[in-house]
Amino acid sequence: MDKVLLVYSGGLDTSICIPLMRQEYGYKKVITVTVDVGQEPADIQLAAEKAKILGTEHYTVDAKEEFAQDFCFAAIRANGDYQGYPMSTSIARPLIAAKAVEVAKKLGVKAFAHGCTGKGNDQFRIEFGIRTLMPDSIIHAPVRERNMTRTWEIEYAKKNNVPIQQSLEKIWSIDENLWGRSIEGGRLEEPDFTPPEEIFQWTKSVDQTPNKATEITLQFAKGNPVSLNGEKLSPAKMVLKLNTIAGENGIGRIDIMEDRMMGLKVRENYECPGATVLLKAHKALENLVLTRDEIRFKQTVDQEWSKLAYEGLWWDPFKSNLESFINGTQTRVNGEVRLKLYKGQISVLGRQSQWALYSEDLASFDSTTFDQRESTGAVKNFGMQSRMFFHLKEKYQKEM
Ligand code: ARG
């Protein structure tokens, strides 16, 4: 085995893996694969250039539409959320692993390498993905295996002529895709550190946003967003466009304490403008068309789905069974939502659907169809068991 496929982002961790694979792991040939899931085009370009400088056989796989349609939209239908995080990084990992395996199979490669550290979640997601799709693969994680520090990595990079942008002062580790942007590292992990404005690139600070609100209309079919302001858009274009519009209005900055899979509690900063808008609009439509019991039960299903998605267990049978329920409900999530975006806030201006479980005639104050007098008996018997218990408690209090 003399060839290894490196899942390559062009960042520091993965870049030092190139000389490491040759010098320390003894591979003759390093193949690098960068999967385009909507990160800055300049970064994709840069990764390819670095790979060229470092002499690898390099592949860029454009997976933007697939990512939006099969991953981001699945997250919308499931109201995907983990502790306030739309799981942008998480849901891209299974696809990145799948694309890496696809290239490996074509080239007859069985050895993989990735740049994940031992502290994060990506090691679980990436390795699960590769192992699921290629059970006899060998996977190397040099940064984790050699317990590397960032300082050591920078030194090693310099020694081996690996081009790097990071300096010891600017050490943000950034992960980007259509669904969001994550900024980690350095003091950003501290719960009580105020993030500097410079970490944000997709969202304006609210004091820089327009003083006039932006109104938009989103059309959904089977729980998927299909058009924006009457214009039909492909899944990736939809998310990209909303990232711009919502980011301009300061929407989608997320700052949470996140419980990682390892049990570490870490402060996380995200920018997810498009995802924030789409999730809010989708929920507004669900609340119009689903029954009360469906909504209540779906919250549990959605949470279970989100836990699996967070952990990257994309091909788990529990997940597909949860999706049977989720997608069953989504057949009626068709219609339109109007929203106002203003100074970091999203307000729902209106929603409509042919499946609306709302009857103007029944709900309105002037209605004659709903005879109020008929409620009397229902109200009288409401809470009967609670009332009985209350009086029993008074009677037998001493024995309790
Ligand atoms: N904590 C998040 C997750 O596990 C985001 C990780 C993003 N990685 C990064 N290097 N910024 O999904």
> Which CATH architecture of the largest domain would you pick?
Alpha-Beta Complex
- Our estimate of the beta-strand percent is 15-25%
- End-to-end distance: 73 Å
Question: What is the strand tally?
Answer: 14
The small-molecule ligands in this entry are: arginine
Question: So, the CATH homologous superfamily of the largest domain?
Answer: Argininosuccinate synthetase, chain A, domain 2
How helix-rich are the residues, as a percent range? 40-55%
Compute the average pLDDT: 96
Strand order of the largest sheet: 3-2-1-4-5
Largest sheet report: 5 strands, parallel
Write the layout of secondary structure elements.
Elements: E1 3-7, H1 12-23, E2 29-36, H2 41-53, E3 57-62, H3 64-77, H4 88-107, E4 111-113, H5 122-133, E5 138-140, H6 142-145, H7 150-159, E6 173-177, E7 180-184, E8 214-221, E9 224-228, E10 231-232, H8 235-248, E11 253-259, E12 265-271, H9 273-289, H10 292-311, H11 317-330, E13 335-342, E14 345-352, H12 360-363, H13 375-381, H14 384-396
Parallel strand pairs: 1-2, 1-4, 2-3, 4-5
Antiparallel strand pairs: 6-7, 7-12, 8-9, 8-13, 9-10, 11-12, 13-14
Helix pairs in contact: 1-7, 3-4, 3-8, 4-5, 8-9, 10-11
The structure holds arginine (ARG).
